[in-house]
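pasting for the record
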Amino acid sequence: MRLLFDHNLSPKLIDILADHFPGSEHVYRIGLDMANDPKIWEYAKENDLIIVTKDADFGDISVLRGFPPKLIWIRRGNCKTATIATILMENRDAIANLIADERAGMLTLH
């Protein structure tokens, strides 16, 4: 379960979640910090990554383009990085189910 964290999430999540989601990346660390959403979408698709974002725009792209890549949309207002990490760790089974379900393209977490 490799994740790609969007601009609006901290790069620290990679280190915090390394044991739970090894091989994950952040747009900042791979040089996509200034990239637009469609470019990030294509990178995730080409590299078999699940996009993790708080940005509604990716939901729109998902509707228009379909999947892959799959998408985890975190619908939580401003919160600490530790809270985001907890949300992802507590929903690890739901994320695994997203990956396994060929009909599902997006998981919304609160």
